[in-house]
Write a structure and sequence with these properties.
Helices cover 37% and strands 26% of the residues. With 307 residues, the protein is α+β, with helices and mostly antiparallel strands. The strands form three sheets. Strands 3-4-2-1-14-13 form a six-stranded mixed beta sheet. Strands 5-6-7-8-12-9 form a six-stranded mixed beta sheet. A two-stranded antiparallel ribbon has the order 10-11. Strand 7 (188-196), helix 8 (204-214) and strand 8 (224-230) form a beta-alpha-beta unit. The longest helix is centred in the N-terminal third of the chain and has 23 residues, at 2-24. The radius of gyration is 21 Å and the shape is elongated. Keywords: Endonuclease, Hydrolase, Membrane, Nuclease, Transmembrane, Transmembrane helix. This is Endonuclease. One of its GO terms (molecular function) is endonuclease activity.
Length: 307
């Protein structure tokens, strides 16, 4: 009984601190930034905490844990509890994004997936010069000849590939060199960015990550905005939610797939850090993910309606 009570107290403190930080938006420093990826998993632990507390005779703490569990549910339910919605009308656009893991992902496997899925647009992150060559040899030009590429060694290169004509533009103030271009879809001009933020691990990387997110285009800029890539963030990070406050919405959440993981790598559990963010002029129709050898990220595919 004493062990149950001690364990109950540990759960109460841990779970309360994390969910308070999440709702208050205080996750701008280590270790709270990193802890937010565990929020979906801690929600299940809060249910266990209730049982332990009530079993240990701690009725008042058990009731408190009920409130904590409700707070976790309030953070998670909007991401997948989406009722039936009619398919949006407009020009259909299929987009794909994947992090190539320092250019080491299976280029031939990616091109085979492109051939089967037939995306209109592909955004890649961690695009190296060697990866550009590997994708070209694998035949990507046959499917996506329009290209705006910003390759670099290791992790800071990005690129955009398209079945249509891309018009290159620029974006400054980010750690990685982000490929940016416009694409005409029907009567709409899409302003597209292949997003890759700094991974918020320790020290200055958290500040870099915050600045990377802040530097992304606002929805008030000309054209209709489309951001897709590796944000190294989830809906539980305040800096990421700020993008929604600025007018973006997550395609995955729009179709009830907001908890669908796109990344898993020690010590991070399966979690959605890759996103397709849309402004009011673009609506989601569906989401899929696919494995790709050589990277811990899954290929994320989103079907959209433009206009």
């Amino acid at each position: 009984m004493r062990l149950l009570r001690a364990l109950g107290w540990v759960l109460v403190v841990l779970l309360t601190v994390v969910i308070v930080v999440r709702w208050a938006g205080w996750d701008r420093i280590t270790p709270f930034v990193q802890a937010m990826v565990f929020v979906p998993y801690l929600s299940g632990l809060s249910l266990l905490g209730m049982l332990i507390l009530f079993a240990g005779g701690r009725k008042k703490l058990g009731i408190f844990m009920v409130l904590v569990t409700i707070a976790y549910a309030g953070a998670l339910l909007p991401r997948w509890a989406v009722g039936p919605v009619p398919k949006p009308k407009g020009y259909q656009l299929r987009v794909m994004t994947v992090n190539l893991h320092e250019g080491g992902a299976d280029a031939a496997g990616l091109v085979r997936r492109i051939a089967s899925v037939k995306p209109d647009l592909l955004a890649v992150q961690e695009l190296t010069p060697a990866a550009v060559g590997a994708l070209r040899r694998a035949g990507i030009d046959k499917y996506l000849p329009g290209q705006v590429l910003k390759p670099a060694d290791k992790t800071t290169g990005t690129g955009l590939y398209s079945a249509g004509n891309l018009r290159a533009s620029s974006l400054s103030g980010t750690t990685s060199t982000l490929a940016r271009a416009t694409l005409r879809v029907g009567d709409t001009t899409l302003d597209i960015v292949s997003v890759h933020t700094r991974t918020p691990m320790l020290g200055s990387t958290v500040g870099d990550w915050t600045r990377d997110l802040s530097a992304l285009p606002r929805t008030t800029e000309s054209g209709s905005q489309l951001l897709l890539g590796d944000f190294n963030a989830t809906q539980d990070n305040q800096a990421f939610r700020q993008l929604e406050d600025n007018g973006y919405h997550d395609a995955a959440i729009g179709v009830g797939a907001g908890l669908k993981p796109t990344y898993a790598g020690w010590p991070v559990p399966p979690t959605p850090v890759d996103h397709v963010l849309l402004d009011r002029g673009v609506k989601p129709r569906g989401i899929d993910t696919y494995r790709l050898r050589g990277t811990s990220h899954r290929i994320l595919v989103a079907d959209l309606a433009v206009g």
